[in-house]
Amino acid sequence: MVHAAKASHIGGCLSMADILAVLYTRILRVDPAEPQSPSRDRFVLSKGHATAIMYATLAECGFFSLTELDSYCRDGSIFTGHVSHAVPGVEVSTGSLGHGLPIAIGMALAARHAGAGSRVFCLLSDGECDEGSNWEGILFAPHHKLDNLCVVVDFNKIQSFGSVAEVLNLDPFAEKWQAFGWQVEEIDGHDLAALERVLSGVPAASGRPTVVIAHTVKGKGVSFMENKLEWHYRSPSDELLAQALAEVGA
């Protein structure tokens, strides 16, 4: 998809592929036949620029045909370069960083007031945690005891213009969330069993929202992309596409 559209953000898509695979095959109570079911769990992709992997996941899960992805990032397509709620299975359009978590918190609060059993999962990037709006939300959610909310941070250590440590160091990251009153889990974000174990336990603590700090690798699975800043933006050539597909076993 990214190669055909000459698009970008493939590195950040690959870092979160395992997270989405576990969420959509093991955790989320969602039904492609009833994507607007009132009882569904909600998933908000706050790092909305990593849209290709979100659309691919939804297609693989049956929300729409894989062939529809041929229009990705083309003029007039609903499959835009930042995730769009026009696509079946997408709850909200995102991409302006720092907005997804506040929206997810609103969804969790609404579900609580309605007495619904729905859970809300929100996937953040690590660089996105530079945004002050997130930290307002991180303070707000424990105050309202939103234990139906789970945040997953795709902690691949690289953001758009450099490493996270260089641009705006987040350390001590887990301790910050703990100080704000969250239940904190820290795992290898490519360990499928660990992801399933932690995510299936949501709510993890009564009266407290959960954050899963998932340590990941930008460009995971493709040797020339792993931990390389340029693959936040680059689109693979024909030759590099062939190599990448071979390395991931496609």
Automatic annotation (TrEMBL):
Domain of life: Bacteria
Alphabetical list of InterPro entries matching this protein: THDP-binding, Transketolase_N
One Pfam family this sequence matches: Transketolase_N
Residue intervals of the Transketolase N-terminal domain: 2-232
PANTHER family, per database record: TRANSKETOLASE, TRANSKETOLASE N-TERMINAL SECTION-RELATED
Protein name as catalogued: Transketolase
Organism for this UniProt entry: Bradyrhizobium symbiodeficiens
